């Protein structure tokens, strides 16, 4: 099984320790949601995976071999980041051509399909493209490279809602045709929640959650009802946060016992991935971390 493995990785910038001991293994044929509050180090981790940055400590290996100064490994890992790394005066068609030269292959048929779906003018110079179209060009490249690991850092920046929807559909279609691993760092959690099958959360420099997305969804429940009854029923349950209104209490819980009968007047409903993420990464004082 192909594995991109991160062991005890630390990275600081100046006096700021961003990542302090990341341990996570990305395996093949998965779509990961890489989540974390602003500034927690998601882009930093993606850049380390892609060898654009060097770790202070720890190891990143692809199938057992370090990714550092390893051209063969780097040819299998592609990072689409927020920056536009191509010269502004070049045309869209040049970007596709140079990518093919760099990576040895390029899915021309898929690129032609995506160009048509998103109405990209391949004769246009990059400097002439709107923010959304620049993103679309980078996304087309990311979907057409022959890499086993495709890292997408805020992939839909600047895309309008219909194009975001189209992109998610196209991502699923190409993933089905050619399973590989996508690692998606985004704040639009609900939008990608149907795509991802694993969720990795970074907090305070470490991975605090690495779980199958369906399992995670099963764990989060909101329990609502008369305050005293809800508190009593939740005596042994992990409560992430409560919200009281009049005599009614809404409790965001993790691992509530589904087999335990609910008292009269108490309801339980699923939390979506976005709600779960918000509650899991909320600081105890109610303020958001960092
Ligand atoms: N080259 C750099 N030099 C100095 N500091 C940096 C550099 N790159 C990142 N940082 C700092 O490291 C921290 C983590 O940044 P990073 O971009 O990895 O976070 P992120 O989780 O991707 O954030 P966001 O969700 O806001 O995009 C931030 O405080 C950032 O300012």
TrEMBL record:
Keywords: ATP-binding, Nucleotide-binding. Pfam families: ABC_tran. GO terms for molecular function: ATP binding. It comes from the Bacteria. Residues 4-229 form the ABC transporter domain. InterPro entries: AAA+_ATPase (IPR003593), ABC_transporter-like_ATP-bd (IPR003439), P-loop_NTPase (IPR027417). Gene3D superfamilies: P-loop containing nucleotide triphosphate hydrolases (3.40.50.300). This is ATP-binding cassette domain-containing protein. It comes from Lacticaseibacillus mingshuiensis. The lineage of its organism: Bacteria, Bacillati, Bacillota, Bacilli, Lactobacillales.
